[in-house]
Amino acid sequence: MNWYEDFLKKFFHDPIDKPFNIPGHERSAKEYAEYFGVSGIDENKYSDQIASCMERSLLPKDIMQDFTEIRHPLSEVKIDVTLDSQNAIDEISFALKEISNSYKNLSDEEKALLIWRNLLEEILEKIQDKELKKYFPILPADTRVPDHSVWEHLKVTTAINAFEKYQNNSLFLFTIGPVKSFISQARKAQDFYMGSFMLSYFTFIAMKEVIEKYGPTSIIYPDLYKQPLMDWYLKNKGLELKKFNPDDILLPTIPNRFVAIIGTTDKNKIEELAKNMVRKIEDEFKNAKEKILKGLKINETLSDTQKEILQNQLSDFPQIYWIAIPWRRGDNDIQIDDLKDFFTDDKINNWKELYKFANEKGEHSPNIGFLYQFFYTALEKSMGARKNLREFEQKQEEGRKCSLCGERNVLFFWESKNKNKFLKYNPMAYDLTNKIEQKYLTDGEGLCALCFLKRTFEIYLEKEVDSIFKYFSFPSVAEVAGADFKEKAKELPEFKEYENKFFEYTRMPYLKIHSLPKLNLKETLEGSWFYEENLTEKKIKDELGVEIDIQKIKKLKDLLKNKLYEQAGKPKKYYAILYLDGDNMGKWLSGELLPEIQYAYNSKVWGKLPKEFKGENKDKKESRLIQLIPRKILTPAIHSAISTALRNYAIEFVRKIVEEEHLGKLIYAGGDDVLAFVNLKDLFDVMEKLRWAFSGHIKFENREIRVDTTNNSGFVLKDGVYYLTMGKNATCSMGVVIAHYREPLKIVIDKVFEMNEKAKKAGKNRFGICLLKHSGEERVGIAEWKIDTELTTEILKNLKDWMNRNREEKRYISDGFTQKFKMEFIKLKGTSVSEGIINTELKRLVIRAYNGPEDKKKSEFINRFVENAKKLFWKTGENIDNFTNLLEIASFMNKEE
After folding, report:
1. Is there a domain that residue 397 lies in?
2. Are 868 and 759 contacting, i.e. CB atoms less than 8 angstroms apart?
3. Out of 252, 314, 376, 681, which residue is the most buried by the measure of CB atoms under 10 Å away?
4. Helix (H) or strand (E) holding 872
């Protein structure tokens, strides 16, 4: 049976309105299946039994519960729900019947894929009841254990291969790399972006092997629903998708690893699947290489030696690892003892006792699904051991090293002045001077084979993936730095006049690029040419390869300085890069951070569980159940919930925050980690929104995201529908670097990862921010995201504003007081200084630094500044350097230079 025939039967085994009609849900399931022309939904009941055991094995017999609440799967929080059950059934039934008409002439494969991708959105469009619509995507699969949605249950059930009480499944983990070293080897913003995109793209190439053999629901982590690359795959099949945005393909959102349930335990079949993945990636990479070299007209002129060097330099990329844990040995399901090599004796014995408890006390006897947490833990431990067996050897090469990675020798170069500087040390290097566009290779730059393919990979993407890559350009760091200048200047007639003259004088209209999305400048001059210091004969010739006379340069400078700068101010020379990373994601995925077992149950169900089930002793101490399993058991539904939450974060919130609401550009958004460039004007706003959206502490006001730390539900209401998030117990850390647009990008990227690590080492749930001055000086500050009940970023925004010399209020605090404060106490480092002394001196220095009218508001203004500064000092470690660095960074963001 093909996966899609199996999928259709399993998908309709439970009706989507099940929580409203538990007694009649089997009848409804058959009715809804008939709407879509599906029969035989009773044939695969054991897949449902395994999924149900995974999700709700610890329930006693004869417990019933109406639909009254939804539990957040990753926290202790619940949402009370009151809905008209009959109205809900009528609305959902009517919607399904209407929608099914458009499925009648589809093949089973098309039907399965579109049900998976479109059905949720199609039903939401039909639902009239606003309250029902709000809860519809998170309706529980079981009203007694309402911590997983019916959609997640259906996903897991359709992933499991089982029939007649015989299952045939394995848990499969795939990973591709290297990650940080590959993406951080960059000289241009586009290098940085393309490294991320390539890893996402090749991971998806591997995923396709699972999707085409076992279906998209087999991928448990990450959630593929609405993922841009998955939508691209479906569009290529000629399917019409709901809420599809073709531009989304540009954003890499697939992480470099995935977990899947595959429907076989046959070792040969598993190895064949994995080998096919590796082969498909290798073929794709080989095809990319050939298409790029052919497109640039290089392939036919490479010598045999150069071809050999090229192949050797590509041989170690990518690094691929995979592990599978079969759930069956021979004719029998594997037992707890079969995995004893991965666990301590205490852990094994505890799980045996828990299994016995579930068998004796539970509504149904446990099956193989009960051991999913065991499988996953063994899988991760096996992968750790597998990665320690590195099969490749780093080849040492002698010669001039690549300008990007600094590891491999130069194979391709552009040099207009002294070719010998490359050929002396790399006599087989290929000279591309004046043979390709300088967007791919700039004068004086030499690249190895791998970095050259990264730089030119868009050529392949345009031919094989989507034509949107044909005119693709990723904003430069100069474009990001000057984005707020362009925001003010773009409506001025002189702005277009300046651009037109630049294109006319250089005779290079193809220099037009796409700016940051919020600016909506589809064809604009690249940002570095709005800086006066770049308007020189030498710079224009070196960068663009054209000569322009001094009189024309003077005209450009005059227009820039005397028109644009006068009206819009000078563009800032500094930008920010940020890297957000979820804290303890390994522990979340292993189940270590799940809430207590009682929070899986409907609160009324937990209250009425029988004593013989809980096993309470005479002293009413902890129940036997909690002693055996204090936290929820990890299930595929939990993994699916984490996947859904991270997918919602990346696709529904992150892009909106960075690119629609603020002056930023995403490099990567894979769920628990985000990389982005941000203009300094919006940096603190972007930082705080990204942090609090991760845990669901946001709300939508007038269709814009606002931080709301009182929203502890773990669900965010967007467009009238609840979206699952990681919830209130999830945290993340962030590294931020503020750097000059001329600072080598590799240094900035390495520093942002370093700052993230510093934030995590300081205790996690923090941000680390570094000001990397063009002079080489650094200022580093680390802080928790919250100071008591206030956001640290709000405090920094206030202090930044109050130190701004250009405030409309015409009063400010001169930032010079920070250095004086540091000098006052530098000799007392490491000694105990009373709070009173520090507070008094801080206020004295702030008073002296005040600039503005001598009026009644002066005292209020100073006091507000002092109170915020005191909070920052005393709640960020009482460290004078850290405190003054944070103040200096905030103040620096006000400055043009």
Report:
1. no
2. no
3. 252
4. helix 857-874
